[in-house]
Amino acid sequence: MKEAIKKNKKYIIIGLVIIILLLIGIAFAYLTTTLQGDKEYLVRAGTLDLVLDEGNELALEKQIPLSDNEGMNLNGFSFSIVNNGKIDTDYTIYLDDMELSEGESRIPDSSIRYSLTKNDETFMTRNMTTMGSNPNRRVDFGTIAPDETINYTLKIWIDYDATTEEASGKVFKGKLRVVATQSVGEAAGTVLLDNIPEENQYDDGTDTFITGEDPDNYIWYSGKLWRAVSVNNEAKTVKLVTHGNISFMSYDDDSTAFEGSYMEEWLNDTTVDGFLGNLRNYENFIVTDAKWDATEDNRELGNITRPNGTTIVTDAVGLLNIYEYQMSYRGADYSNGYLNNGLDWWIITPYSSVYPRCIASGGNSSNVSNLNYRYGIRPTINLKSDVKIVSGNGTEDDPYRLMSDSDEDLSGVKLNTRYSGEYIRFGTGENYLYRIVSHETRGLTKITSAEPLKENGVFKTISFGNDTYYSSTNTIGTFLNGEYLSSYIDSNHINMIEDSSTWYLGEVRSRASYKLAKYANYDMANYAKSTNAKIGLLRFGELMSGQFNVFSSNTDYWLLTPFENGLNYVNVYSGNTTNPNPYNNYFGIKPSLNLKSNVIIISGIGTKEDPFIITLS
Question: Which residues, 6+ apart, have CB-to-CB distance to 334 below 8 Å?
Fold first, then answer.
């Protein structure tokens, strides 16, 4: 077992050099180039004149691992970007590796934490792997206007949980690089409304809603396919909802209110166990203090008017309300509206103080009879007004792509720097498509099959086994760690799988928090019962555990999480869950597994149409 550095109190020398600062402009047909002063930078694209000024140096020497609170108290490295030109400029700040001296070893990104302050707004602390991997570590990006100054402070420290093997005696050396281009693309709201036919738009005076059966309003962001619902007339923000159900869970234990519910907590959970923490650079893309109208409404579809703002909740992520859903099919049958994905999913509007509300698989609204039910989750966000669309035509096969989320050349990039929901080519035959779940284990990438396993075009079914707790030796565990590996995975891919992973077996009863699937008694420091195996299953409330689109002929499939009284969870086809007996019921199988830290991308962009092709580095 690895020995934690924090326990043996050994000092570590970490060299962090951020004194070489380059500003590189992307070439256009009409270029001018200027060199000025003793700091080298290139000025290109017409009148662009971007200046990069560094402040105090950051030098970490003989440092011990720090907690996030201690790391945030460091002085950090401060610098500014100033646009002295006359045009808007898009820019991206990268943190590149510098060459090490002879005899030095590089500390892995997974053992480094960082925080970034931008114009006095401090983003949450994160692991450096979330930046991406060299040479694509992205610190920040955006657009800077003429005469604008943007001030940054970057703080970097050794992770409190880093081990001796990972960090002792090793160093990190880096340099900042800024790539600046003349502003490209157009604001997402403008592109949507310019390209959606007028008959598929409705302006209620506050928002312009996109309506109809299947408008071209698909957007790909952070590994997930979204539908654009509306554009706010004043703020020009764009409301998005995921096309499919990302997960499922109980709304809450004793209340239909969104604020304080399990639902609100999961959607805005910034850890690996929730939704927000797995969104790519969300501070740059989405409104983090959005207002969600969760006002109670017991009227039926067709009679809903805009909610009156009695109950407003401020969050980064929410759910659609019943009015927004109704507006999406204005002038059409709700069963044919584009937001009806054939699944059951929660909305934020309660029917009453006793009954929450969901959209049923037929597209109609349903007041849920009690809080025991567990339905699908379609997270909803608001894109900032300055987020730009740079490619795509808005169709499902060619969705709009957002600036700084439209990576193209990812050859050599580590898979463990990529995002939940992105697609991977893995396995053999008809079972070749997988998706990233999360990076739950340091350095590893958890993936799951994009749909349950098939044999000759038919979904394979199996009983869970006599033991309600998963293991490598019960019925489904024996299949996954035996026949599955020999018949559904080729030898090259088998070598990429971590030999043993931890699978959490916490019970989640009716009206209980999703956290109990992994943690004991809601205490995130104490894990629930677990087992070790090479291959496992997704658990209750985990990302990618929901159905994505029932119209794709999905099927019921087993989940890892026990319920109670010898029963197990099954994610049923309409998008909710049930608790069948594990040994006399047969359901589908969605394997889950962890890929090793040295798996890299050869090609692909991570979409369903162009999944990542991977190999071992």
Answer: 301, 326, 340, 363, 364
Residues 6+ apart with CB under 8 A from 81: 50, 51, 52, 91, 93, 144, 149, 150, 152, 178
Cβ pair 595, 445 in contact under 8 A: yes
Whether residue 239 is found in the same domain as residue 366: yes
Q: Is residue 452 part of a domain?
A: yes
Longest CA–CA separation in the chain, Å: 77
Residues 568 and 488 both lie in one domain: yes
Instruction: Answer whether residue 245 shows pLDDT above 70.
Output: yes
Of 97, 18, 3, the C-alpha closest to 52 is 18
How do residues 293-346 score in pLDDT, each as one tens digit? 999 999 999 999 999 999 999 999 999 999 999 999 986 788 889 999 999 999
Mean pLDDT confidence for 534-552 = 88
Can you give 575-589 as a three-state secondary structure string?
CCEECCCCCCCCEEC
Residues 194, 176: one domain? no
426 and 500 assigned to the same domain: yes
* Same-domain check for residues 467 and 606: yes
Q: How far apart are CA 349 and CA 358, in angstroms?
A: 8
Lowest mean pLDDT among 27-31, 409-413, 544-548, 549-553: 27-31
pLDDT at 6 over 70: no
Which one of 72-81, 185-194, 553-562 scores highest in mean pLDDT? 185-194
Work out the average pLDDT over 459-463.
Answer: 95
Strand partners, 91: 142, 180
**Enclosing domain of residue 152:** 5-184
Instruction: Let me know if residue 340 belongs to a domain.
Output: yes
Shared domain check, 239 and 196? yes
pLDDT at 42 over 60: no
Task: List Cα–Cα distances, 451 to 459, 496, 553, 555, in angstroms.
Answer: 9, 20, 10, 8
In a domain, 265, yes or no: yes
In-domain check, residue 285: yes
Q: How far from the centroid of its chain's Cα atoms is residue 529's Cα?
A: 26
Q: What is the pLDDT of residue 37?
A: 25
Mean pLDDT of all residues in the chain? 86
Last residue in a domain, options 151, 184, 217: 184
Which of 351, 383, 415 is a domain's end point? 383
DSSP assignments along 496-563, one per residue: TB-S-EEEE-----TT--GGGGTEETTEEEEE--EEEESEEE--TT-TT-S-S-GGGT---EEEEEE-
Domain count for the chain: 3
Residue 124 sits in the same domain as residue 247: no
Q: What is the C-alpha separation between 279 and 268, in angstroms, rounded?
A: 10
Within this chain, do residues 211 and 317 fall inside the same structural domain, yes or no?
Answer: yes
